[in-house]
Backbone:
């Protein structure tokens, strides 16, 4: 998973980086271009797919939840 930062007021954008590097670039940009303030309309986003948009992941979590539910019922019956 990668992250990128975009400064709304000046349009500076980083490439896709590991989260710690993107965060460091954001902090560096704030310190040099906008010292003493946090710019409005910043975007700090990930390229990871939302689980809600991934039907296979939703099915997997549904199966896991079902298995846990069945195991819980079996445990409570014993």
Residues:
């Amino acid at each position: 998973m990668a992250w990128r930062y975009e400064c709304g007021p000046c349009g500076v954008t980083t490439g896709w980086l590991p989260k710690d590097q993107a965060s460091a670039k954001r902090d560096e940009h704030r310190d040099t271009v906008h010292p003493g303030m946090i710019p409005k309309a910043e975007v700090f986003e990930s390229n990871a797919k939302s689980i809600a948009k991934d039907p296979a992941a939703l099915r997997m979590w549904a199966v896991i939840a079902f298995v846990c539910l069945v195991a819980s019922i079996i445990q409570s019956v014993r």
User: Anything to note?
Assistant: The chain has two helices and two strands. The mean pLDDT is 88.
